[in-house]
Amino acid sequence: MADNFKEAVCVDAGRVYDSCCDRDCLEDLRLFFRPTDQQAVNQAIGVRARSATLLTTLVDVEPVTFNRGYYSVDMLFYFLVSVDLYGTDSTTPTTVNGIASFNKKVILFGSEGNAKIYSSATTAAEAETTLPVSANAPTAYVQTVDPIVLSATINQCCACDCMQPISAPAAVLATIGGAFAPVDLVERRVNVTLGIFTVVQLVRNVQMLMPVYDFCVPNKECVTTTDDPCEVFNRIQFPMDEFFPPREFCENEQSSCNACDTGN
């Protein structure tokens, strides 16, 4: 590949200045329900968690005082959790959805940038009403997957621990069909424990000199679409792994070996 080097070009790209990965066990997160579902919670005596989905993550970046070049990344996670409620008069559970939230903060190095950067993407009409904001702070990226539901409990609620509902964006509330139940309607509460994995990165756009070998020319032709469903189906590769599950592979080998097989 080195023999094909043609020239060095300057590119503007995002450079990762700092990153971290973490696993969090979120114990006893309170679930908040809409009024009709909260009434079902009040009548339940048992609960079983079904699934949890990460709805969204709100991310904010602020410089750390007296520690130049470092930034705090504040993350607010919203989860949609589905649970089965069991009552005394029926063996068939009632499934309801609730919202839980979790705050997380990490400190990462993002370097310093004093240059004020503006873009032509801001039109003159927009500049008439709002002054363009210069981009001199790093951008935080949070990568995560849907959490793992570890446990769920239901308990009697008293005035000391039945807090006001959390604030949530309208799009989050729409996933359960409306606003949260008020405090005076809450008699029992549901708490869940979730496990979540996250990767956080601080990225800053910089100009870098990169070696260029060639243009990225596509090496295959586009497949013409067709309205014939059977023709489309015939192009799909046979899912062999669905019928014959693959064996476990060694970490440093391409082929399977007995040392990595479970039970050997």
Structure overview:
- It is a single chain.
- The chain is mainly β.
- The chain is 11% helix and 44% strand.
- It has helices spanning 35-43, 124-129, 170-174, 229-234, 240-243, and strands at 7-30, 46-63, 70-86, 94-109, 139-144, 148-156, 188-212.
- β3 (70-86) and β4 form a beta hairpin.
- The longest helix is centred in the first third of the chain and has 9 residues, at 35-43.
Estimated radius of gyration: 26 Å
**Mean pLDDT over the residues:** 82
Q: What is the SS-derived class?
A: mainly beta
> Judging from the principal axes of the Cα atoms, what is the shape?
extended
Report, as a whole number of angstroms, the end-to-end distance. Answer: 42 Å
Write down how many β-strands occur, each being a DSSP E stretch of 2 or more residues.
7
Could you name the key traits of this structure?
single chain, 264 residues, mainly beta, 2 domains, 3-stranded antiparallel sheet, 5 helices, disordered C terminus
Present the secondary structure layout.
Elements: E1 7-30, H1 35-43, E2 46-63, E3 70-86, E4 94-109, H2 124-129, E5 139-144, E6 148-156, H3 170-174, E7 188-212, H4 229-234, H5 240-243
Antiparallel strand pairs: 1-7, 2-3, 3-4, 5-7, 6-7
Summarize, please:
With 264 residues, this protein is mainly beta.
